[in-house]
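BUG: 3D viewer hangs when loading the predicted structure for this chain

Environment: internal workstation, default settings.
Expected: structure renders.
Actual: progress bar stalls at 90%.

Input used:
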Amino acid sequence: MRRTSSHDPALGSPPVADAHLASTLNKLLPYLWQYRWRVLLALSCLFAAKVTNVGVPLVFKQMIDGLGSTQQALALPALLLLLYGALRFSTSLFTELREILFARVTQRAVRRIALEVFRHLHELSLRFHLERQTGGVSRDIERGSRSISSLISYTLYSILPTLVEISLVLGVLLVRYDVSFVLITLASLTAYVVFTVKVSNWRIAIRRKVNETDSAANTRAIDSLLNYETVKYFNNEDYEAGRYDRQMQHWEDAATRSQISLSWLNLGQQCIIALGVTAMMWQAASGVVANSMTIGDLVLVNAFLIQLYMPLNFLGVVYREIRQALTDIERMFDLLAVNREIADAPDALTLAPGPMQIAFSEVAFSYEANRQILHGVSFTIPAGHTVAVVGQSGSGKSTLARLLYRFYDVSGGCILLNGCDLRQLTQSSLRAAIGIVPQDTVLFNDSIYYNIQYGNPQASRDQVLAAAGAAQLANFIEQLPGGYETRVGERGLKLSGGEKQRVAIARALLKNPPVLIFDEATSALDSKTEKAIQISLDSAARGRTTLVIAHRLSTIMNADEILVIDTGRIVERGTHQQLVEAGGAYAQMWALQQLEESAETGAEQRPPI
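Structure tokens produced before the viewer hung:
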């Protein structure tokens, strides 16, 4: 994934009003002000460094004038040489002290803000994460974190020192020489700043296009790589490469225009500086000819110009960097401003440990206003009992698990745990009490051991191995060259669907919660492994409140109650035997699955041709 040019990472997107920039700075300042004494000491060192830096040319002028006199040439004051060296060293000393004092401030601010954004993203609702683009969000966080360092660095190490030095130099010129020197310097600085700001603001649209195309290309690449298997299934490598290349072509065109406009900006800046320097040196040379100034004065003015020229030469880049940094930081703070759809109530209660009774009372829910998923669903799972939910795809079965986990809040009715509405409980204590084996298991790109232990990071190795054994994983893991340290790849790509689901089962067993949810937990397993694991699942569910969302009806025959859902409504309920005898929708599903299993068994037993 190509990055934008580091030479000109300027003026991000979209252009931000000054009020927004001030708001961004106000949000950033509290993180810095925590170390106010370090900040104040660093600023003191900054001022001391610039005072000594301005003192260097003044001492050098005295040395030059001293050497111009033959009487003093043989007796050059050693004090001036020592003072010159001391000032040179002091400039570096105070500069480094400033950086030493401020290093912790910058890095701690970056760390705290990045952690706050990271935590906030995890607190946002599932709806946000289903709609977000991972590549774009990750790039916003990356740019924002990096831009905090850039903003502090350019402000403290470039803008502020330059302003201090300009003030000191103008003061020296005004006291020692003709006011024309001050006027020429001010005119040059004003022309340079106005030109830089005007042209840089014109380049905002160009830079915005560069950033937009860069993010789009990055998002396209990440999305394609995350769907690696799908790309391979349909033999669409060239198609994906073409889509990515089209995005990169847009980026190339925008980046080229940006570079060309930058060259014109630099050329105009250099022209203004050249005119200012020429005017200053002409004035100083005229003073030497008229005997109103010495050679040392000419050297002093030249040295001052060089000292101003160096930071001034980078003012355009600094201005663009600061604007870009403010924009990127604002984009990161915008993530913090995203409303948490699901938040703990101010007086939220902590769920007490122990047996759990779950009750859905007239629950209604819709992901979108015009598409309702659940209609007045009511059922109770007594503590220690198992309730299974079956139905066609899209009937709302998995939505029950999401609501129980409080990934979403119900639109109507309520869900009660031990008589307490979920919305009155802290999300942390609620989710700590629930273990789930999801239908689509996603693993971390780490070892098998890590992924199992994720169910309980404090679990011992023996507990992890026991959970793996209960999930029928132990024999498979022992056959791997790396054993439990085998990495599973991005999203668990190196494991089969059944192996991933067994890891998820082991993870849930290790968590050892009072409530278990099996969301089609054995759907990716073969019949033999399913039967072996079903015994473990039945054992794990014993004594726990369990919600089983099932596709294979053979896995829920022993459930205390089975609910049949159709288009978000419970149409049948009862035990397996009761529902089969009723001859309704469940009986039809049961008969159909029995036929399918008989056909599969016959196919396995039929001798090969």
